[in-house]
Amino acid sequence: MALPGSGLIRFGRAAARASVVAPAEVLFALPTPVLVIDAVGLVTDANVAAESLLNLGRSAVIGRSIAEVIGHPLDAVSNDAPFTAYDLDISLPDGREKQADVMVAPLPDRPGWRAVTIHGRAPSHLASRRLEREGGMKSAVGAAAMLAHEIKNPLSGIRGAAQLLEATADADSADLTRLIRDEVDRIAALIDRMEGFTDTRPVTVEPQNIHAILGHVRDVASRGFARDVVIRELYDPSLPAVLGHRDSLIQVFLNLIKNAVEAMGEAGGVVTLTTAYRHGVALAKGSRDRRVLPIEVCVIDEGPGAPADLAQHMFDPFVTTKRSGGGLGLALVDKLMTDQGGMVEYAREGRPPRTVFRVLLPRVGGKK
Predict the structure, then answer these.
(1) 127-145 mean pLDDT
(2) pTM (2 d.p.)
């Protein structure tokens, strides 16, 4: 005879068994990149976070040696004891260099097999750099507003006076008055660019097709300042819509491509535009204000890059390596990205090294 409630007990046990999560499900859901390697160091499995880090699909990672995947063979690591390497410089298959904590743990049921987890420092590092720059940006806004007001008004008077002198001047003097007008116009144009920093009105962001924006920017650049440069496009067509301001994004990418063309100089070269989806990148401004930025757009050039002493200050106002530059182009890019909740970073990556400006944007419907 069945005991009272025994059917309920059997049902509860069956439900519990049905609700057990398989280890593979946990592996693939982890936000931390995980690679499983066998006794000879070949990758046998990889989770979604590892695919995102390596920019390779799982099928393309499986069968590769761990040395090829992260730049370290792990030969010195014991197969039967856990091991952690902090601040390890790793080399990814596409040439990117990163610093990460690499943890290796044995799989008890498979002799010689190990699980390798990679804890990157990039997201928190990017966020801290972003916060450091915001203080300088606020100072630049105040300086730009003051200078625009104090300088631009008298410039119009100087230009008008030069025009009056030119009307009655001889040929030699006319050349001097034209020089005055040209220099006044150049300074006025610089002030116009500085005034871009003084606009603190909220930006209206809407769903945007990032590839349509990049296509428009490519067409504009190819018909103008980049007519003698090859622009290569490597896009992920499956990307969702980004959340941004169309005109500001066009200005951002025009500035970055122009910067890339100027950096390569007369020798020319190739400017590469790439798009990708990156898991785990977020911008935090405190415990409650956190924005996920999974859409990555890179503008890559073959120029020499910035000097080491300026690399950390690329987006500061009035910092430039160009003799004819005002040091406002990249600062304006940084402000435009900040205004719409994104961010931009500079890096030297690959073999041989190339200059990478990485723009990170929120996606439509993304969680904060």
Answers:
(1) 54
(2) 0.57
